Amino acid sequence: MRYLLPLSCLALSLSAQAEPLDPLISEGMALIPPFQQQLMATVKSAVESSGPQQAVQACQQMAPQITAEHSEAPWRVGRTALKLRNQDNAPDPWERAVLEQFQQRAAEGEPLQNMSHAEMVDGEFRMMKAIPTGEACLACHGGSIKPELAALIDQYYPEDEARGFKLGELRGAFTLRRAVD
């Protein structure tokens, strides 16, 4: 009984903290689909016009530009992963912890499709949404990459670690952040 009051206060405190984040979560979640769609459309168009080799080049050249286009103030939008292709997308310590949390939650059976995490970190709103490995991802990120494609990936991304994924596994996450006044 003596623990009931402190637990009630903690529950109310956590609930009160979550409510102010709801508008930021909604706003951030709305930024992900257009970003994801433009990235996927770029890759799909390259594959359809010239095959997976062209998709590797398109990713290397266009993904940073697409990311910049979708990072409209006050938001910064990006992608990160535990197994990187592009070292420029390396997770910071907070992102790494969230990615590891996503892996653990997935291992416990939680579906990746709707998995996300948001919180305030040092005066900044931070949010991540898991990216499951889709069928289209496997040509360049799966376990059976054609040798000529693997050679091209090695050329563009000499430190590539983003291979060997299976359908539905955690590929990475969208990561969003913005300062909060």
From TrEMBL:
Residues 1-18 form the signal peptide. Residues 43-176 form the Tll0287-like domain. It comes from the Bacteria. Keywords: Signal. This is DUF3365 domain-containing protein.
